[in-house]
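Researcher: Sequence recovery benchmark, item below. Answer with residues only.
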């Protein structure tokens, strides 16, 4: 039979359970595993009633994830590639483009807030592009400032109000 990997929440519960069995207090355990004290009291009640297996068997709460671990790894690998490799016109990833990519790859749609959270969980952060374009021609800019700009600027009229 294939052994199922434990999720992070289960690992936390079991660590807390072992600490409680060693006589640690709920406040200390809560601090050590990074959960609210009330959560540890809930786990302690389960532990007292059904032992360590009761903590292992706690069902996960909330809505099931729409992308599994393998899909998230695939998404991370895709975002590490250039956007042009996925048919986008520029070399800049946006939340909208990542959403399009997820839809293409897995047929799942997310709102931009959720895409932001997914990217954060995958280790990505906001990156601002440099202000100046790579293609910028400094000579052309200098020439425009010297010749064209003065002609376009409003000249003060000689009239007094």
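Model:
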């Amino acid at each position: 039979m294939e052994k199922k990997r434990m999720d992070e929440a289960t690992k936390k519960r079991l660590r807390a359970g072992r600490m409680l069995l060693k006589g640690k207090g709920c406040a200390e355990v809560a601090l050590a595993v990074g959960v609210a004290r009330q959560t540890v009291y809930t786990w302690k009640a389960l532990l007292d009633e059904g032992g360590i297996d009761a903590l292992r068997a706690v069902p996960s709460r909330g809505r099931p994830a729409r992308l599994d671990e393998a899909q998230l790894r695939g998404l991370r690998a895709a975002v590490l590639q250039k956007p042009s490799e996925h048919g986008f016109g520029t070399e800049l990833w946006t939340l909208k483009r990542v959403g399009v990519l997820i839809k293409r790859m897995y047929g799942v749609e997310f709102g931009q807030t959720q895409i932001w959270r997914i990217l954060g969980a995958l280790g990505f952060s906001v990156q601002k592009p440099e202000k100046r374009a790579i293609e910028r021609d400094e000579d052309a800019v200098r020439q425009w400032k010297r010749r064209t700009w003065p002609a376009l600027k409003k000249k003060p009229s000689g009239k007094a109000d």
